[in-house]
Amino acid sequence: MKKRIAILGSTGSIGTQTLDVIAAHPDEYEVVxxxxxxNTALLAEQVKRFRPRLVxxxxxxxxxxLREELISSGLGYKVxxxxxxxxLLQVAAHAGADMLITAIIGARGLSPTLAAIDAGIAIGxxxxxTLISAGHLxxxxxxxxxxPIIPIDSEHSAIFQCLNGGERREVKKxxxxxxxGAFRGRSRExxxxxxxxEALQHPNWSMGAKITVDSATMVNKGLEVIExxxxxxxxxxxxxxxxHPESIIHSMVEFVDTSIIAQMGLPDMRVPIQYALxxxxxxxxxxxxxxxxxxxxxxxxxxxxxxxxxIRMAYDAGRCGGTMPTVFNAANEIAVERFLQGQISFLQIxxxxxxxxxxxxxxxxxxxxxxxxxxxxxxxxxxRLFA
Length: 387
Known about the structure:
By secondary structure, the chain is α/β, with parallel strands linked by helices. The protein starts with a strand and ends with a helix. The chain has 16 helices and twelve strands. The protein has two domains: 3-151, Rossmann fold (3-Layer(aba) Sandwich); 169-320, no CATH class. The strands form two sheets. The chain has a seven-stranded parallel β-sheet with strand order 4-3-2-1-5-6-7, with helices on both faces. A five-stranded mixed β-sheet has the order 11-10-8-9-12, with helices on one face. Helix content is 46%, strand content 15%. Helix 4 (84-92) runs parallel beside helix 5 (110-118). A hairpin with a 4-residue loop joins strand 10 and strand 11. Residues 264-380 form the DXP reductoisomerase C-terminal domain.
């Protein structure tokens, strides 16, 4: 029987690569529902190829465009088309799905992920903001419903795989690797006037604009630290970040006997995506093997929190807990959006995050409504700064 898959963010980087993996194994997977943004042309192609039962767009206008696209192409079957938050929740909790791939960007992924967990659907998690904003709610709900959450981020997939080599109580620490992003060789003085186009030139990975900028500021790694705390139940003092420019070792686990297990491979997001789909088994795929001889030397450097202050802010937000990680994430989302639109400079991204965090009064153990309220407040504050 085919495994039935729903995808949030099907036209984005992770979504399209998930569909690449599914296409390579047509006898093993069926796509039952897709949600996307405004790229209706690509979504129409996905619908024609994978024939889902339900599709959702970001708004009513995009849904209308999709209908026109499908009508003009002579689609040979009927597909239900929804839009907005309602459509997103319908895709997430689709009754025909065995697994939901949450590849949507930002805090919008929280509510649909909770809806899928409530429906008993396994989660392939590529939306780290879900755990940043409400890790305690998400993990508690998953435990109650006995819903597995399989990480898709390359670093967390690596840790997930390495942990199969020992018991959680035997873990001394985990080591998340970071490429250093587009500006890893530049001093802070050289970042003052960088352009958007420069920030989007990631040296190793092909990703969307937002996550690529997050890699350059090191916010992405900070978010991964908070996500790792929730996924693996580790204290922040047990989570270390090192710069590894080659992105060959995706992350490591050190055990109490000082043994270190590392997960290695060429930078290819399809590998952790496929592992999430096939877990606990492994299967072959259309991937290139790592040639260690050709790879040659691997390099590691200490994380410089003065050079990358956002990583320090992420640790501070995580240790503070409550609504502070929500605020950290929301302020960053708005700051990155404004940078990409040319409204602020690159270094002002971190200034906005720091100032919004300083203004926030933390709620220690928030309920969902309080999390959503803190998220909205942080976004409003971030929009006001440097306006």
